[in-house]
Structures are given as structure tokens and as C-alpha cells.
Amino acid sequence: MDTEADVFYRELPKVELHAHLNGSVSFETIEKLISRKPHLNIEHGMTAIGKGQRRTLDECFQVFKVIHQLVDTEEDILMVATDVIKEFAADGVKYLELRSTPREEKSTGLTKKRYIETVIKAIQQCKNEGVDIDVRFLVAIDRRNGTEVAMETVKLAEEFMLSSDGLVVGIDLSGDPTTDDKGVFCTDLSQEYQLAASTFGLSREAVWELSQQAIDCIFAPDTVKQQFKQKWIALKPQVFK
After folding, report:
1. pLDDT value of residue 68
2. Who is most buried in 2, 68, 104, 119, counting CB within 10 A?
3. Sheet arrangement for strand 14-20
4. Which burial class, exposed, middle or buried, applies to 47 when counting CB atoms under 10 A from its CB (0-12, 13-18, 19+)?
């Protein structure tokens, strides 16, 4: 049963500025992927960190590798991206900057261009369904793959920044992050705010201010930022009820 604090932090409107698509895949979504691909013989216990469970950073990266194996078709990407977006929305996130490195898989016909198009399709589908979240996408460059691949990715990002009606907003540099993402580490933004408040002795009003200040950091023009600030003002009475 949720405590009063749990309800407050979940209802707190939040901005998520740094979410990797694969790292944000929940245990429930991974279970669906595993059931689709029994031939991979993936062990269920290797796909998420349970609450209270300790793992080394190397073990965490193994989870990313497992997800990489499971997500190799457009159908997989569409399901994963849709699930991730809806889960962030259920956690009270109102603005999400999602990022992922476009991949190609010759065995399934997946291309980097189709990868990006499929993520955009998931964003648009969620919007059409009325999911209460505004999502933007950053095309990620894995710095481990070298300059030639990086420039390829930059060109793709430029193309989609012009053609995606504002959904692709920039590029991201990635590669070996150290303690990141809700799926791999079995957390969510509500828990992270609650942990910060507990650690630093923050009042709920201070937490609200932190959440609202994050709006200034999003990849969007000032007009959009002002719209979100107005949304925060409108939501405040019901959060502090």
C-alpha cells in the first residue's frame, strides 16, 4: 500500500532529462521480450536489479548486453519504446528526453534509419493515445565506435531534426555510463526525488522547486518552457492537497 509520501512523489510533475531507451526497459517488458525469443535461452534473473539487491557495475553492463540481444527488430523497438514512455508517464513524468544509439541488424533487416523512425512512431502513437507526457528524442553516438560511425549518426540526426516535426532535438554522447536508468537499476524518478529529499533533508516545497527548475534545462524554445511552467502551476494545488 502506498504511503502519503509515495503518492506525493509519484504525483509530483517531473522532467526526465537523461533516459537511455535500453536502460529504461522494465522487468515486465523484458519478460515479454524473453517470451518472444525462447531460443536465446536468457535467464530471467539476469535482466534487472531487484530492490535491495547488490550488483557490481560490470554485472549491470551485462544487463545492457542481454537487452541488446533481445531488441533486434522494429517490432521489438516499437514495443519497448511504447512501454518505456507509458511507464515514465505513470510515474508522473510530464516531459521526457529519451536517447538511444541507432542500430542495424542485417539478420532482421533493421537499419539505423528505421530504428529512429520506429522510436518516433512510438512517441507519436503514445501522443495519439492521449498519454500525458511530452517526449523528445536525442540520437546517441556511442563514442566507442569511432569517428566514421559518429559522423554517420550526426548526419542521421540532422536529417530527422528537420523532418520529425520537432521530436528529434539533438545528439547525445554515450558509452559506459557509471549508475544510470530506471530499468537496469530498478528505480524510477519518483524514488530518486524521494531519496534526494531524505538524504539532503529537503522539504516538499524544495523538491517542487527542484522539479520546476528542471524545465529550464530542456531542449526546447522558451515558449515551450513557459507552457510547462504554466502546467506545473496548474498541477501544484492537486499535488499539495
Report:
1. 83
2. 119
3. 14-20, 93-100, 134-142, 168-174
4. buried
CA dist., res. 234 & res. 45, Å (int):
42
Other C-beta atoms within 10 Å of 187: how many?
Answer: 15
- DSSP secondary structure of 75-143: HHHHHHHHHHHHHHHHTTEEEEEEEE----BTTTTB-HHHHHHHHHHHHHHHHHTT-S-EEEEEEEEEG
Cα–chain-centroid distance for residue 87?
9
| CA–CA gap between residue 120 and residue 163 (Å, rounded) | 11
Q: How far is CA 229 from the centre of its chain?
A: 21
Beta strand spans in 8-91 (E): 14-20
Pairing of strands 168-174, 134-142: parallel
pLDDT tier, 36 (very low <50, low <70, confident <90, very high otherwise): confident
The confidence score (pLDDT) of residue 54 equals: 58
pLDDT single digits (tens) 84-122: 999 999 999 999 999 999 999 999 999 999 999 999 999
C-alpha–C-alpha distance, residues 42 and 45, integer Å: 9
Q: How confident is the model at residue 59 (pLDDT cuts 50, 70, 90)?
A: low
Distance CA 209, CA 194 (A): 14
Strand segments (E) across the chain: 14-20, 93-100, 134-142, 168-174
Which CATH architecture is the domain 4-239 placed in?
Alpha-Beta Barrel (3.20)
Q: Kindly list the domain boundaries of the chain, sorted by start residue.
A: 4-239
What's the chain's average pLDDT?
A: 87
Confidence of residue 204 (pLDDT cuts 50, 70, 90): very high
